[in-house]
Amino acid sequence: MTASREEFEARLRQIGADRYHDKHPFHHMLHGGECTPAQVRAWVINRFYYQASIPMKDAAFMSRVEDPALRREWRSRIEDHDGHGENEGGIERWLRLADAVGLDRSYVASKQGVLPATKFAVDAYVRFVREKPLLEAVAASLTELFAPKIHADRIKGLLANYDFANDRSMSYFQRRLNEAPKDVAFGLKYVLDNADTQEKQDACAAALEFKTDVLWSQLDALYSAYVAPGRIPPGGWQPGTYELDLRATA
């Protein structure tokens, strides 16, 4: 039996309550000031692969959309990351964070040193959006429902615990506090309006679960490589390389 609009939204939100990556031990370490500089840098390097792939994911989505109104609405997501006009974009703001934590930004931008599991997870998400029905692709984006809280917690935790954190280096997360609610308001309405059968609702829930797996897998890879047991796979960034002497710019 098809759930009501309210019941279906509650089901989607429960997925976040149960599965969102704010519960991963790596994030607890990061926000609590327990990460070493190398662990923070590894996170910045690997997360950049995800950040840089988001506009590609959205472009793949838009290439399949025949409705101009939907394309217009979705286009802002690409501009938010790539930049437009006076908005420098989320990718540039992430590279500013790379500067702040003492990484060579050209190395980060090259996507070298990204863990294999990070690549597999992120590439799977891009492929999912490229190949799955549009409704499921939109549903997968609804992890944004849960993002403002993790951004707020991250800003608070990093500012309290790390010398590199300031308004400039935290600008990516501060900007997303305004961008994510706009995106999710549209995405949630689209899913609730169009998931009008039990089959579609189940598919949307599965898509959102898949996306939470994508995010969780990235942190599992970081934890395994740089926390415990600390086995960095071939090709992964090695601490002590492509780092800057922050004292020289202090």
Automatic annotation (TrEMBL):
SUPFAM superfamilies: Heme oxygenase-like. It comes from the Bacteria. Coiled coil: none annotated. Residues 10-220 form the Thiaminase-2/PQQC domain. One of its GO terms (molecular function) is pyrroloquinoline-quinone synthase activity. Gene3D superfamilies: Heme oxygenase-like. Its EC number is 1.3.3.11. Keywords: Oxidoreductase, PQQ biosynthesis. InterPro entries: Haem_Oase-like_multi-hlx, PqqC, PqqC-like, Thiaminase-2/PQQC. GO terms for biological process: pyrroloquinoline quinone biosynthetic process. Pathway: Cofactor biosynthesis; pyrroloquinoline quinone biosynthesis. HAMAP family: PQQ_syn_PqqC. NCBIfam families: PQQ_syn_pqqC. Ring cyclization and eight-electron oxidation of 3a-(2-amino-2-carboxyethyl)-4,5-dioxo-4,5,6,7,8,9-hexahydroquinoline-7,9-dicarboxylic-acid to PQQ. Belongs to the PqqC family. This is Pyrroloquinoline-quinone synthase. It comes from Donghicola eburneus.
